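hey team, just a heads up i'm posting the complex here instead of the shared drive bc the drive is being weird again. everything in one block, sequence lines first with there labels, then the predicted structure for the whole assembly after. its four chains so it's a bit long, scroll down
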Amino acid sequence: MPRVSRARQQVAVTADLVILTIRSGELCVLLVERGVPPFAGRLALPGGFLRGGESLEETAARELREETGIAADELHLEQVGTYSAPDRDPRDPRVITCAFLAIAPDLPLPAAGSDARAASWTPVAEARETGLAFDHDAILRDAVRAAGRKLQFTTIATAFCGAEFTIGDLRAVYEAVWEVELDKPNFHRKVTDADGFVIPTGGRRSSANGRPAALYRAGPAESLVPPMMWSRNARS
Amino acid sequence: MPRVSRARQQVAVTADLVILTIRSGELCVLLVERGVPPFAGRLALPGGFLRGGESLEETAARELREETGIAADELHLEQVGTYSAPDRDPRDPRVITCAFLAIAPDLPLPAAGSDARAASWTPVAEARETGLAFDHDAILRDAVRAAGRKLQFTTIATAFCGAEFTIGDLRAVYEAVWEVELDKPNFHRKVTDADGFVIPTGGRRSSANGRPAALYRAGPAESLVPPMMWSRNARS
DNA sequence: CAAATAGTGTCTGTAAGACAGTATGCC
DNA sequence: GGCATACTGTCTTACAGACACTATTTG
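-- predicted structure starts here --
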């Protein structure tokens, strides 16, 4: 009896979402507590099954809306990878998943999910310690790496911020995702010099102490030239 | 009657392979002629259905072996993306595919596929003109882009070459995938200076004309620092 | 005033790109 | 020698990173 049957196998497919944001300088991910087996009571990435007539992108967009109330066209949604180890989900029929990365500003809070599941922002460091259901630890790790790579070459960092933000806010994004400290003066110059990355609004924002920071909004550029390099420390 | 049913849908899943190589300076992809509907007689990427007990990576490795005789651990195999548009495959049950990128040296020729399908290397430019079955045009485009990005930051270019190669061979890889011309002297210095990219074997190879080029083999480094940038022309 | 954060100026090392010039093969 | 290809040297410009310094706020 061969372990690998020659028959083509039909499977159920889910789209799982890694929705990242920055809350008070910390990288956070939206997690839900599973209400039903398998892994009932454990934390997991939000997600759901592919339905007839849908592409996986549409499934992901629908889940995003159901879990957070955000329309998918308001933020980036991109594939991270497909996870298909035969033992990744104990259910039968077999379940494979396509993971999507979404980047969101600090939201008012996922309004008590219409899906009735308890959804909440969890620091990524904490999620890694606790451990997630299924193979979601690996998915989260891959998604954070993908986000880190995108920060290098695109202006996606502004998607982590609200409509108006300071250069310090933007630097906090890079520092949280890359887990490094960046030189403030050099970062400031690089960002403000890059063509179409940020546009000054003229406003300023006071904090408790110190000189108020100038406010910016996202510029029209999508790719960031020259890239923001952190390859010296090349992990991934 | 909603277009999107609320029922979770079971689907069949394939792994499709984009196997790239360089033949006389031209980027080529391994294509098969389909013997059965849908798209019978049309060119398509090699691939096959996920079987019970297999991950998609294992499916891809098995198809690679069946189509080319190459063992998967001899070359890179990595996910490009999953394609799931509802109308991408007319068959029922519905079929979605996970595309993999493989990079191969110029092989002796895919030994008359054990799968009995006519497999052959086709220049990518030609494949784009002719058009492929299913959504394989989009998959091919995405895979070539992914390969181009990998060339920037990894030493994967050596995987396109045989065990021994000249710097000119290596440069041809970059020029074919990126569709640019690179400065020969600068490329030479950059590659030979990069730590662990290439190692001189001491041998030389004569061509018809001119000074024989020194031979190299792949070095131990996997990531390329500093990266080989072509971001000035940033397409993708 | 001190403390704190925002932002600018300047210097140094490294690397990219342009391209002149040298080396070494075949006819 | 002529020609083609491989390779080296050198110059210019651009950018990363370090860090001294100035600016503007609160207390």
